[in-house]
Amino acid sequence: MELIHNLSLGFGVAFTGVNLLYCLVGCILGTLIGVLPGIGPVATIAMLLPATYALPPVSALIMLAGIYYGAQYGGSTTAILVNLPGESSSVVTVIDGYQMARKGRAGPALAAAGLGSFFAGCVGTLILAAFAPPLTELAFKFGPAEYYSLMILGLIGAVVLASGSLLKAVAMIVLGLLLGLVGTDVNSGVARFSFDIPELTDGIGFVAIAMGVFGYGEIIANLSQPEEDREVFTAKVSGLFPTKEDFRNMLPAVLRGTALGSSLGILPGGGALLAAFAAYTIEKKTKLRPGEVPFGRGNIRGVAAPESANNAGAQTSFIPLLTLGIPPNAVMALMVGAMTIHNIQPGPQVMTSNPELFWGLIASMWLGNAMLVILNLPLIGLWIKLLSVPYRFLFPSIVLFCAIGVYSTNNNTFDIWMVGAFGFVGYLFYKLGCEPAPLLLGFILGPMMEENLRRALLLSRGDWSVFVTRPISAGLLAAALLLLIIVLLPAVKAKREEAFVED
Amino acid sequence: MRIKSQKDFFSGLMFTVVGVAFAWGATTYNVGSGARMGPGYFPLMLGILMAIIGLAIMFTGLTVETASGEPIGKWAWKQVVFILGANLAFGVLLGGLPSFGIPAMGLIVAIYALVIIAAQAGSKHALPSVLALATVLAVGSYIAFIWALKLQIQVWPTFITG
């Protein structure tokens, strides 16, 4: 069996003492930061990315994957205990999780989130391992025209899922694409939009954008709101384990959530957020068993299903990244950046040219999930303590870590000025109601799109019809168009707006 | 004409202006043709696209009725100034500004400055607790970044270490 062979290769890499350690460190750091309210996975990864610069590529990516899962788990802890989604994908977890916590059932809620996520993570990893090789085969058949169309599809997918105005999300993507073009053009050597600033000829650092917009921007936005008293359930999280009845309710929800999450995660633009929303909606539609708590009042299924779904989605969203080299969401865009820093060009060639890295990363995903369950459930007391740290101590620390982190990227103070500038830009976006995640995605894809467009048009001698005459490319574009039409249908449009302002 | 959504109108304006600026900048490079794209081709295309989308957003801001008028609201200038100021001070103290003759003061001084300035952005900032936080962060950063991760960052002012 090829699969077994590959996985054993992966576990061979992941199970070395050093990599286990980095995976553990990543999980702990990720949870540590992710649990802090108001800091999502994107900011967490951006902030911790510099910590991995010195590591060899395999260890660095393993640690980053650990950070990502840690941040996800941490986010759900915050959601359940503080009624504050630490990240967009746990927005729905808040609804029932917090109600459970208020009824003194925070323990079972946390356990349901943890165990559900672990199960989903296992399934997600298997799917990733099984689907990656055939998809990679397919990817080798892709020419520049197909890649270009695929990126269009991915970007449209991301837009559809962004909350708020569709037009603004498209505009943010285009802005991201443009920012991605700043710097020296690889073909002509012309330094574009760099205003004769030597640092800008290398392009804008994506760490600076991510930290500025997601770190500083959020801090300013948070501070500008009147301080509200957060109700934190630090006192009593007793009876961690769910009852038998809980398990009976949880199990089908976890299964449904996992199935949904795994399939939605693969879609370009999909991933954790859509998966969680869809899973919650489906649970709400299924009939309540006699004696079950209704949704919105602390139903355990309302925690188990979205949490399983977002973890499964988080896992399978690695598939487009690892096989096609195309990040399906902002977190994966950061992973692309991380890989480039370590001189790995993400794409189908990674699996063949660098099998240790590829399979090691996949194996470490499973390990990371296992570690998180072990880590999270007993250590929950510690995370709760963290939650009670007041924001006035948190935000100067976050500003500091961003500043040190970005400085260490190049040991150049220019990057610090860039974070500051993008911090203001981030706050501007917040004020104008523009969701920043599509910007980051566009930023990473900008140079890739230009390159593929250039090649496609060069091969077709400037004939734009190449995108619709090649069948795969035409199919991808048709899918993108279909997606747009579906979202713009009045009925779906109303539903979408409703879903994002979930009560 | 009355603006029906301030957020939409002004974000549309922002996108239009930035789009036009990028497109105009792109024309200063060689644009080329589809078959031989110059460095200006793709940015010109995107800039025009963004300007058009921006106009569309402005248009919705003027026509689509919203309940509240979606006001942008007050700007949190105090927070902006202190957070970004803390960031600026950190950079200046850490690396110095040779062009202005400001020497590098190193990481520890920079951390204290950053924490003290940033804390002013919050509503509560008693000096003793801020200093305590700065000390904890300075010690922690030294252990984490200098001792454990061995980052090449200047720790003490130039005039002490020489």
Word description of this protein:
The complex is a heterodimer of chains A (503) and B (162). With 503 residues, chain A is mainly alpha-helical. Chain A has one domain (2-500). Chain A contains 22 helices and 2 strands. Chain A has helices at residues 2-14, 17-34, 41-48, 57-82, 91-102, 106-140, 144-161, 166-181, 206-224, 244-266, 272-285, 301-316, 318-324, 330-341, 349-353, 355-387, 391-410, 413-432, 437-459, 466-469, 471-488, 490-500, and strands at residues 183-184, 191-192. In chain A, strands 1-2 form a two-stranded antiparallel sheet. In chain A, a hairpin with a 6-residue loop joins strand 1 and strand 2 (191-192). The longest helix of chain A is centred in the first third of the chain and has 35 residues, at 106-140. Chain A is globular, with a radius of gyration of 22 Å. The model of chain A has no long low-confidence stretch (mean pLDDT 81). Chain B folds into 2 domains: 6-63; 77-161, no CATH class. The longest helix of chain B has 23 residues, at 41-63. With 162 residues, chain B is mostly helical. Chain B has helices spanning 6-27, 41-63, 77-95, 107-119, 127-148, 158-161. The interface between A and B is large, with 65 and 73 residues.
How are the elements arranged and paired?
The complex is a heterodimer of chains A (503) and B (162).
Chain A: H1 2-14, H2 17-34, H3 41-48, H4 57-82, H5 91-102, H6 106-140, H7 144-161, H8 166-181, E1 183-184, E2 191-192, H9 206-224, H10 244-266, H11 272-285, H12 301-316, H13 318-324, H14 330-341, H15 349-353, H16 355-387, H17 391-410, H18 413-432, H19 437-459, H20 466-469, H21 471-488, H22 490-500
Antiparallel strand pairs in A: 1-2
Chain B: H1 6-27, H2 41-63, H3 77-95, H4 107-119, H5 127-148, H6 158-161
Helix pairs in contact in B: 1-2, 3-4, 4-5
